[in-house]
């Protein structure tokens, strides 16, 4: 298998998860090599290079210098929310395929700019959405497509942490998560992409009509922590919304980083003939993101996504079936044994590398940029609705969304100016 030469931009926590996946895939014969990395924090960059065995000549504080190389096959962008459009468009403009971290952007306008950059620069793009790369999602999508649930009329997208604001309550995460300029938004954009994107994808990407939403940042805070993490203008810690799609489908959305409650319910999809309950939705990257003998980077346990099918048979009898469908379950292993190609649909990065190698095409890969853009579209609607105090239509979201991606970044070595297209409302 031909070697793929990879460059990384951003050497923070998520880059280590990328590296873990690369190391695990190499053990399975993928022939991947990280040849360069860029990070504005020189101390962090040098430590990263030492950890992964890169020579100092292959480490760059200015990623633009790294993009002048001619021995790179693809670039992985591991920076924060509001730099995704800025950096990823620069990568594609320089002539490289790009795999970007989630969310696609901090606004729909910027997600659309990044999505359109694929065509403008003739480059491939993928966005990390681990929740859609596993048997849970695949089986649910198949069941809905096969009519097992009848007419789908309602869904619920749920994400909950008892107390877990990254960079605030979770000090091992960067403070950029709670920086209103860099992180911009809270859980709806940070973790909501895993839940909302999964629901949209399994339901066939329904077309949004309108959304009503509200957000708050009223969870407990302390000035001592505010001062320690330099966070005095908090981003929201809770978002709640109800969305309506064409055909009468509705979806309620609940996403928090912190709330004084132990359980808030599960993600589910309801149809006329049956419903699916989604347990342990993946938001950590699956088995490939776990180092050998270690724990997932950033903490937490390996999630085991499963489904529960509720329904009614032709005689009116109700049933409840548990579907053991985690990748490591008997079902997941048996599926791989019968269809080895399914492995490419069980991991974000493996699908990306398979797409780059030409094993998967635009028709056979999962179109993560489109799914991520539509997720940003709905999420933006929640934010606009909260600002206006009323529901907003899909057309209003398109007209009112604004580009907020960082165009000028102050760094220890000077200012980086990003040049990307303006948003043109549709």
Characterize the structure shown.
The protein has helices at residues 13-26, 42-52, 63-66, 84-93, 108-121, 135-145, 187-190, 192-202, 223-229, 330-338, 348-356, 368-388, 394-400; strands at 4-9, 32-38, 59-60, 74-77, 98-100, 125-127, 152-159, 208-216, 238-245, 250-256, 267-271, 274-279, 306-312, 318-323, 392-393, 408-411, 414-417. The chain has 426 residues and is of the alpha/beta class. The model has no long low-confidence stretch (mean pLDDT 95). The protein is built from 13 helices and 17 strands. The chain has 2 domains: 4-129, 3-Layer(aba) Sandwich (Rossmann fold); 131-340, Dihydrodipicolinate Reductase, domain 2 (2-Layer Sandwich), CATH 3.30.360. Strand 4, helix 4 and strand 5 form a beta-alpha-beta unit.
Outline of this structure?
One of its GO terms (molecular function) is nucleotide binding. With about 425 residues, the chain is of the alpha/beta class.
Descriptive terms for the model:
426 residues, alpha/beta, Rossmann fold, Dihydrodipicolinate Reductase, domain 2, nine-stranded mixed sheet, six-stranded parallel sheet, 13 helices, 17 strands, 31% helix, 21% strand, globular, Gfo/Idh/MocA_oxidrdct_glycsds, nucleotide binding, NAD(P)-bd_dom_sf
